[in-house]
Design brief:
about 190 residues; 10 strands
């Protein structure tokens, strides 16, 4: 069976064999797209972060990963193709006037959204695999920030990407280790 897809800024369509599916993008879905550089771009429309009492809406970008099994851009493409057209509308917890088509859904029933508690539970299960028996399970944001710093990403870029207020937020709450493979003595002497 051949599958064809097409989309414009306001609508989408899929033709699978002799079946035809189409629909309109929700306002939040219309703000998400993948450009020719395989960069997924979206806006968080109801963020927790505020400045002078107003939510900070910012453009976010996710780059493709070379391994398609780990690639969030590829995962989003498949989601759009196979799941996004199925309705799963929920009201935003902090902004009741906002209804959106949920991105995170139950694996067996795409019409049911995953709750924040379910997502947190899944993340804790996955991270518990990486932690020694009896150790405290770190926050996912702390793992990501620490791995990024260990890979040589500058603190400024990590702080900007996470939308933290400053270096102290990263250093005091999200940096898990200060271990470094850089020999400062050899570098300066």
């Amino acid at each position: 069976m051949e599958i064809f897809t097409d989309a414009i800024n306001t609508a989408w369509e899929i033709v699978a064999g002799s079946r035809f599916y189409s629909g309109l993008w929700t306002p939040s879905e219309a703000l998400m797209y993948i450009n020719t550089k395989e960069l997924l771009t979206f806006i968080i429309i109801a963020p927790k972060e505020k400045r002078q009492g107003r939510p900070i809406e910012r453009m976010c970008e996710v780059k493709a990963h070379a391994n398609s099994l780990l690639c969030p851009v590829q995962a989003y493409k498949i989601y759009k193709e196979k799941v996004a057209h199925l309705p799963c509308y929920i009201t935003h917890e902090n902004t009741p006037s906002l209804k959106y088509n949920s991105l995170f859904r139950h694996i067996r029933d795409f019409s049911k959204p995953l709750s924040v508690d379910s997502i947190s539970r899944i993340i804790k299960k996955v991270t518990s695999i990486c932690v020694k028996e009896g150790s405290q399970i770190p926050k996912a944001r702390a793992i990501g920030a620490t791995l990024a710093a260990s890979a040589g990403i500058s603190a400024d870029k990590i702080i900007s990407h996470a939308n933290w207020s400053g270096y102290s937020m990263f250093d005091n709450y999200y940096r898990l280790t200060r271990d470094s493979d850089v020999n400062i003595t050899e570098s300066i002497l």
